[in-house]
Every structure is written in C-alpha cells, then in structure tokens.
Amino acid sequence: MSVSGEMRDLYQDLILDHTRKPRNFHDLPQANRRAEGHNPLCGDRISLALDVQADQIREAAFEGSGCAISVASASMLTEAVTGKSVDEARCLLGAFLTQTAGSPAIAGDRQVELGKLAAFAGVREFPMRVKCATLAWRALEAALASDETAVRTQ
Amino acid sequence: MSAAAIVIETSPSEASDERLDAPAYDLDAVRAEFPILREIVRGRPLAYLDNAATTQKPERVIAAVADCYRHGYANVARGVHALAERATVAYEEARAKVARFLGAETSEEIVFVRGTTEAINLAAGSWGKANVAAGDEILITELEHHANILPWQRLCEEVGARLVVAPIDERGEVPLEGIAARLSPRTRLAAVAHVSNVLGTVLPVRQIADLVHGAGALLLVDGPQAAPHLEIDVRALGCDFYAFSGHKAYGPSGIGALWARREILAAMPPWQTGGGIVHRVTFAGTEYAEAPTRFEPGTPNLEGVLGLAAAIDFIESLGRPAIATWEKALTERALDRLAGIPGLRLLGAPRERASLVSFVLDGIHPHDVATILDGFGIAVRVGHLCAQPLMARLGVPAVVRASFALYNTLDEVEALAAGLAKAREVFR
Q: CB within 8 A of A84, min separation 6: which ones?
C-alpha cells in the first residue's frame, strides 16, 4: 500500500514543514487587527493578529490549533502578508481563494503571484478539505475589514 | 477541556478468547447484496468503516423503495381506491413489523418519524411540554449525542426546568451510582443513549430503568447505535420511550420510529399538527385521532417505511446474534491492531462495547488521518461526532472513529491498520 500521487500533492513537503514548525506562531501584543477563524466541523481555531501601520502590515502572527492543512496555511499566510500593503494583502487573499476554493476572481483583481502558496492547489482535489486551507484566509479577510477601534477594545 | 484525556489500554486478557475468521452467514453472498460495496474509491475498492454514521443499503431495501413507486404508491389512510388500500395495508404491516423488531406490545405504540432526532423532539415537544414544569429536572449523561441533549436543553429553557448530567468514568462507562445520586423527586425523565456513538459503550439500560422508575420518573432510550447490532426488547429493557433511525439499520434515510408505552402515548398531546390526524375539525376547535395517528400529520414517507420493513427482514434473515458475533470479531481485531500502532490513543475502554472504536494519533489531526485513509479507499468518521460536551470531557477537539457493520471483513480492518501506519509515515 503506497500513498497516492494526489495525496502527495496535498501533503507536500513544504506544507508538512510548516505544519511541523509553524512560523510566526505566537501572540502579537501590539496587534491592532485581529480575527478568529473557527471551523465547527472539526473544531479548528486559528486566531490571526496583524500589526498594521500606515496601511502596511508590519507583522502578522497566529495562534490556535488545527489540522496540517489549516496550520500550514496560517503559517504561510503570515509569511506572505508581512510587509505587504493592505491592498496587496487583499489581492493575495483573492488569488488564494481563487486557486484553492475555486472562487471566481474578483473583477479588476490584479494578477498576483502566489509563489509558495501555490502548494495549496492540490487541496481542490479534496473538496471536504478546502475549508481547512481557507480558514486563516477567511480570518485575514475579517481582520482587514475590522474596525481598528472596535478590535482594540476586545 | 477540563479533564485529561481518557487513555486506557485494553489488555489482551480482556478480549474474548473466541477468535472468528468468518461469520455464521455467507459473507461474500451478503456483500454481493450491497451494490455500493463494489465501488472503486480513489482507485481502490471501498472499505466502508463509517457505519455508525450511516449504513449502506442491500438490494432488497433498494428494491422495496423502487417497488413502492412502481407498483404500490398512493397516499396512506386517505383514498378508497385499490392503490390507496394497498399502500395503507403495507404501511400498517410495516408498523407491526417495527413493533415486533422492538419487542413492543402492539403496533399502536409505534410512531413513524423522520429519524431519531425527530423522535426525541416529538417526545420533548409533546410529552415534555405537558409533563415538565418549572423546577423539574431532566437527567441525561455526559456521553450523549447532541440529538439527545438539545431537545431537553431547549425544553428546560422553555419551561424553567433544570438539565442534570450524570458523568462518565475513566472507562467511558456511566456508573449507576452517578445516576442514582442525580435523581431527585423533581426528576421527570431520564434520557440516555443505549450505545454511545463515540465510545461504543453499551449502557445498562435495564438497571438505569429501575433506578429512574424508583425515583418516579420515566426513561427515554436513544437507540440508533444499538438497533442494527443488539437484540432490542423494550419491555425487557424496561424503558418508556425508545427511538431509532432506519438509515443506521440498512434502511432508507428519512425514516425512523419512536416507541412509547401505550398509556404514555395515549395521553400525549399532538406535536406537529395538520392533515390526517383528526376526527373532527371546526374553527372552534379540533378533536384529534388516537395515537399513533395523532403524531403522524401530513402525507407519510411510505417508501421509507417499506424500505425500513425490508431492512428489518434483512437483519432478521441473518439474525442479530450472528451479526453481533461477527461485529465483535471485527471490533476485537481492530482493538488488537490499533494497540500495536505507536502514538495511538484509544478513547474509552467500556467493558461492553458495540462495534466501533474512536481514537486519536499523537501529533496528527483526525482530519489528516481521515484524508490519508480516504486515499486508500477507507471511509471513517472524524470530528466531534455531534458530542461536543463529551469531546470536552475527553480533552480532545475531535476523534477518528471506525465503525463496523455486518458486511465488513477482517481484510478491511487490516487495511485500516495499514492505512494508519502510513499516516504516521507521512507525518513522521
């Protein structure tokens, strides 16, 4: 019995590396944008924190627990958005959702290079796991949309 | 996550010394009756080990549903034409069959419902609303499925009653002392699973019934995990309500039954109302029909009822003792193989276990385990299994569950063990 090709596509070395050693996996006390992604089906919970200054994401970090896909996706998200402008992060979000969930591209979206995040393309072969890959990205969407003042009071 | 995870290794000495290689029935012939078992999943033959979620259907159940539409379909208990009569007779014969299947005294004690969920909602919405008042108590246990928690929780909220919870112990059993200590003169009803859908624990329903009746309360048994595996005799069990679902017992989805003792059912007010359940309607008021008709408004699920009857015939053709013996052999093989997988924690170690096992693998999320197994064509369940309070008690967010049915093979159990070993390799 050997692991099939599509399984190898899903659990790529890059993804497993982030699962085993999640990057930016800590609290971010100075964060001014926060959102939580929760998947009630499996109990996965990803808390995303962003430090946004002058429309730029200075730092991104996450905490929580989840499956290999959701943790790796959150870890790679924090790496990908650090240093990006809010607008660039939104474009990246749109491109990631298009790749992973097959969401129709938003009109006017700039072409965005997904780079390493292309590793999640294999998830589309496993429709039940798409929500795992998009969990942190939905949190990003909420965090970017959140009202700074309201979030601070949490 | 209050308590530490329950981790008890089942020692080989606890396993039965009887090792079966084959059931008393012809396993190949039985498997041939289930067309879906010939499916190829991700390039491999399907190993369906998600039977506690729902079972697959034999040809005779599929045929019963199709034949209903082809030859015998009409509305039940309404028309006087030949097809209507045929439908009505078949519907009531099926009710009598379900009554015998459960050991009921008469078929008037059987209410057809969509499934266990609707059965318990009916009991809570009708009997509960009429009999539970502010300050009263409903007793459940810590291992209940949401379907046997939420209807009671909502009833308690609505009438100002209190939901009381009897704990499980380290084995995942429900100690009788814990139940006895939580019964009070205010207890109106206890609602317990016959078999835990997570731990496989078979609850001592007879002893629980005696305790509950001693406190002057009634007992409802949530039975879908038991009906396809154990002999059910509601009179011997001593309960007052029993609910089960057809789809977990090789029947169609969307059909199940609530059994209640005749005098209890006769005194219960209607729950959902509508056509077909009345003697006389005026704008000033309505005179309702007797039970069970009173509880079956609207056009019934005739094809589901006939499919359920065919499923009962199928189960009885093999015999529940033979089924239980084979499922025990499958479960013991699984427990034996799982014990050899490093980092695997079995959840619960009930001394009397139905044919399912739940576990977690250290460092690997249950959803990843299930996806790897799916890659080998092996279907298992993962998640909180609609028992979030039990997950909290066990200290895990989710589990992997393998559950066995009369058509499973020892090779499928071996494939599960091999798949789990592969999962450990991938996530090494």
A: A56, A57, A92
A41 contacts in B (CB within 8 Å)?
383
Interface mutation target, options B367, B394, B427, chain A, most CBs of A under 10 Å: B367
- Give the Cα separation of B297 and B76 in Å (integer): 11
Residue B54 φ then ψ, to 5°: -165, 150
**Is B386 a known active-site residue?**
yes
Q: Which residues on B lie below 8 Å from A42 (Cβ)?
A: 365-367, 382-384, 397-398
pTM reported for the whole predicted model:
0.91
For residue B83, give Cα distances in angstroms to A58, B93, B167, B293, B301: 74, 15, 52, 20, 16
DSSP string, B99-130: HHHHT-S-GGGEEEESSHHHHHHHIIIIIIHH
Judge contact between B117 and B273, C-beta under 8 A.
no
CA distances from B113 to A129, B95, B194, B264, B301 (A): 33, 12, 19, 17, 9
> For residue range B184-207, what is the model confidence (pLDDT) as tens digits?
999 999 999 999 999 999 999 999
A43 touches chain B (CB under 8 A): yes
Say if the Cβ atoms of B371 and A10 lie within 8 Å: yes
> Residues of chain B whose pLDDT is less than 50?
1-17
Residues 97-126 of A with CB under 8 A from B: 126
Which structure tokens are listed for B99?
A: 């009554």
Q: Which of B68, B156, B239, B386 is catalytic?
A: B386
pLDDT in tens, A109-145: 556 789 999 999 989 888 889 999 999 999 999 999 8
Give the model confidence (pLDDT) of B409-426 as tens digits. Answer: 999 999 999 999 999 999
Looking at residue B361, its amino acid is: L
Burial B162-178, CB ≥16 within 10 A → b, else e = ebbbbebeebbbbeeeb
List of chain B residues whose C-beta atoms are within 8 Å of the C-beta of residue A132: 367
DSSP state of A4: -
